[in-house]
Amino acid sequence: MGKRPRFVTLEEAVDIVKDGSSIVCPSFGYEKVAFAFIRELIRQRKKDLYLYGSGMNVDADMLIGAGCVSKAEIGYIGFENIGIAPYFRRTVESKTLEVEDYSNFIMTARFFAGAMGIPYIPIRSGLGSDILRYGNPEHIKEITCPFTGEKLLGVRAIHPDFAIIHAQRVDTEGNVSIDGPKYDNIEKAKSAKTLIVTCEEIVRSEMVRENPESTILPSFLVDYVVEVPFGAHPYACYKYYDYDWEHIEMYAKMAKSPEGFQEYVEKYIFSVKDNWNYLEKIGLEKILRLRANSSLGYSTYYEHLEKVGVR
Amino acid sequence: MNRYSSLEMMVVAASRELKNEEVVFVGTGLPMLAAQLALYTHAPNLVIMYESGYIGCKNIHLPRLIGDIRLMYNLAMVGSMIDVLGFLQTGKVDVGFLGGAQVDVYGNINATVIGDYRNPKARLPGSGGANDIASSANRVLIIMNHEKRRFPRKVDYITSPGYLDGSEDARKRAGLLGKGPSKVITDLAILCFDDSTHRMKLEYVHPGVNLEDVQAQTDFELIIDKVSETQPPTDEELKVLREQVDPLGFYLVRRERR
Q1: Mean pLDDT of chain B
Q2: Contact A131 B124 (CB under 8 A)
């Protein structure tokens, strides 16, 4: 059975992350993101974090806006169809945030190398582009294959101090089990020196052992486990609840001005006692409406809302 | 139903570039809409995949982002990013389908920064999977609004490689696997690239658009030789697009209002 993780509170888990740490908090797809953890990092006013990621969205923008991040290595920070991430944009333009730009696959492959315990991995992305031209030569480099002589991009392994991932469930032994897409969450989790997992629920081990194909990480790779129901809100958690599109759009709108951003973090982070209190502010009706329809795995609340012309 | 917007013309024209039984790796934004339209009209066997790991999407509700869990429903397979972006490098993906902020005369795409990279006028989101798709998909389709500032002679930053400096075998010499961009579909026209110079060439103009309009909205000289007119959207294409693909007007209505 090996080493078992420690089961801690959200506040305790975040306290472990000291100022100046490097972190990765997978945030692809507005789904299974440890968003409650992000809010608690902001509430505890962490400083000088070094942020690693591939595709990142609202979570990264909020951390940056709150002044928690001093440097980032990224594939993407934006809100896709909603638009530009306002604080990412503002801090890069004012040079208060230092960024190294890569592609999603370059970042994913770097975590993969980290997860496999090798110093780098060759891939075919980045070549000929300004990602290679402006990339840090300590992190990506054009190389020649020792076997075929082909030009390739060597991308260096990443070993963040902390990875923080969100899962549907962790069992009492600490095995991590998920539903739906894996993105590059497993590679990110395995590349880190310390792994923290937040989850919707802690379940009996028999349940995980009935479906071992859903287990993405064995207990001995996990250091800390935190149970946080609705912990990915305003993002989704497949088969549990959907993303809160109104909330995401509200953030995108408010973060366009420093005053709006302050108002947002004051209301949803600094004046909030704990995650239960946060969920109270979101409101019972919204929480229930976001619950996944069991035949679809997501909610059709917004589809119905927009059909009757509330838009 | 024959009235349609320039946005609908662009999406319909782009969807027609996808052939049945092709494998298409789709980027965020309008490519998602055009790929869905193709699937529901002339290309029912199109394999739609996203970097989030989704392969063979036949979803019933429109995704708002490439990782949307609406894509899990009725899906053939969900892989990981290392899986799908990895096998993109084997050359088994027919088409990459991308948007962007700027495209230049050689089909290089910028999605990272306006102005100097180290001293930016405007910072944009960055590559995401776009560089990976443009590097390795067999051919690349680009969909973008046709405005002068979006069609500079040279992009401020090459996020995703087109034909680079346009020289012979530039992509091959850089070590790139895919053959590069094949078409640029805009709200005014359909453009392709000259076989020898790799410069952007006007192929079709949409109904009601003049050659001069297209050139006026392009900051470099287009190759203009034989140009035809795009077939307008059929009633069937418009019906599927409005009623089945985007019934809430998430892309079609909201974008127009911006």
Answers
A1: 95
A2: no
